[in-house]
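Example record used in the benchmark description.
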Amino acid sequence: MLHGLANKRSVLLSILVLLISAFPVSSRAPIPQARVLQEVRSHLEKPEGLPLDVRAQATALKRYYDSSTAGTFWTESGRTDQLIEALEAVQLSGLTRTDRWVKRLRFMEQSLRAQDARFAALAELTFSAALLQIVSDLRLGKFQRYKKLLHPRTLARRVIENPALEALQDGFSLSEVLDAVQPSDIDYQAMKSRLGEYVALRRRGGWPLVRVGPQLKVGDSGRDAQDLRRRLAASGELALPLAAGDQYDAALQNAVKLFQRRHGLATTGTVGRRTQLAMNVPVETRIRQLQVNLERWRWFALPQGGPRWIINTAAQRIFVQQGQAEFREVRIVATHACQDAAAFDTALDGLTFYPEYRVSRDAAARYVLPLLKKNAGSLGENIKVEPQQALRAVPAVFRPDWIDWKNYNENDFPFDVTIEPGPANPLGAFKLSLGEIDSISIHGQPRKKLPFRQGLSCVALRKSENNLKVLLPGLTGDFPQYRKDDTASHAPIQVNLPRLPSVVFIYATVWLDAGGELIFGPDPLGKDAKLNRAL
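Model output (structure tokens):
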């Protein structure tokens, strides 16, 4: 009942504000700031009567307006227009649907000039709440709308919004405040810049289509080559002065290669069906792709400077960054389950040669149990199946072939499965651990096939030993590795690393490659569409 009354009070306040905005306002002197501030604090003492979106920011608002240095922001001439313009501008940072706030704040402007301090205070709080919400959205993303996509470690992040109000009080501009809270990573800034270019291009009508038909190559001429020149000039791969003409010359070939590189295609310089279809993707689709990937980069709290690894499972690559100067990439094999895993950021925990692999409970029940039911001796000597401590009925000396495995199922499998070091270990000859994230690691590739492989691997390095040296250039000498006929028993070797890089684990369909070019890649799991719907 109390909740219903509070909601009614919130609705009545909003209606009264709209009524005030419908009538002309007299030219009398504005209400003193101290009186508006007093009413602001009165509203915050009973936040249950405030509109829901203002109430959501009540803690941060109270923390600021209760301070001795607090003042009102939005009663000053021009300040409200600056915020509304800023909210419209942040759409170029990939933040969607700020128009709802813009429309509401346009209504509230009249209340700030009203001769009723209580309604002026409500408008003051509404403008401040809008700023705080946008600050949070720009720094953390709108993660409340898609929590299932994020790792608990990422969800635990918080931003203290009220310093944005303090920064305004100290004289910083709105644009400075909003720029400061956004990620400074080069990937984010490159996407933000490209988004601005594509939004401007959308206003001009987008890029022209090309005909999907015969392959085009150097030496060809005619209408198709002419359309191709216009298409690539519109998106920036071909210089505008070269847009005219109908010849497929060397300049057009280079522009085609650049387009192919930017879209993850083989850089052949000839235009076949795949390249033609990529060119006909509408600019609006590319804008949405950029917005979704900008949102992903807001999820991370990354330290400035120092080495950084970006594990991009959609791109099947690890990008190694060392400040602005050094940028390398290595190819990986990321499983479907790994691509579908929640995003997180952490730090490299260490390197282990001859690692032991502990099969997850789900994977063991799903993939190992059927083999045990068929033939308990078929797993091989390097795969250990041991009862968990809670299983009292099993004797101290245990052999898998003593168990009637038909008594167990995927929901009831109280056994631990471990794969000992060796050529068939799914981690290969080494494992790179990622902080407290036990379920995901970077590792080599096995030299022998296991009787089961599904659900085990996550991020495997292609050309394992060579790429490990790319990831960790400080390591010298020959690395331990297995021969295919290796049957020796190996004890795990822990390696102390002099400097541990920060790590981003992300599924990104737009990324910066090692040459600094922004790449639009595929979305194999359709995760862009899911996130776009949530936004």
